[in-house]
Amino acid sequence: MIQARAFRTFTAVIVAVAGFICTQIPALAQYDTGSIVGIVHDQSGAVIADARVKVTNTKTGRVYEVTTDSAGNYEVPGLPAGPYQVEAEKTGFKVARVEDIVLYATDTKSINVSLPLGTTSEQVTVVADVTTVNTQSSEPGRPSIPTRF
Fold it and tell me: Which pLDDT does position 2 carry in this prediction?
């Protein structure tokens, strides 16, 4: 009787540990990527819905495209660490680009883009000066513009 109870206890512990390990594997896979988020607005500060946002890894040339929601927000998760630029456009506005964004693994960079009125054939380029948002702890993030890749 004691052996049966010990076996059931041992089995329960093994199942609990295996379950815990299985739930942690997806979380571990997320630590090698970062995110770029932001708001697209016009020069008066009004948000721009349905703006097209292109996030480009300037080292690999890989492009990630999203559209802003009704509040002008966009989010591009799962980005490999590296150098990026963000470009936003909407009919009736000039294209705006933010360059020299360095994304580290686990970073969330907030890149807000202001679109000036004009035609989409005109462009405005801004060099990034952003702060890392560390969502894991209260420690400050790494500098946002260390060296070029």
Answer: 66
CB 79 within 8 Å of CB 64: yes
What's this model's pTM, rounded to 2 decimal places?
Answer: 0.63
Secondary structure in 3-state letters for the chain: CHHHHHHHHHHHHHHHHHHHHHHHHHHHHHHHEEEEEEEEEECCCCECCCCEEEEEECCCCCEEEEECCCCCEEEEEEEECEEEEEEEECCCECEEEEEEEEECCCCEEECCEEECECCCCCEEEEECCCCEECCCCCCCCCCCCCCCC
Name the class of domain 33-133.
mainly beta
Q: Is the pLDDT of residue 110 over 70?
A: yes
Q: Is the pLDDT of residue 103 over 90?
A: yes
Listed by start position, the domains of the chain span 33-133
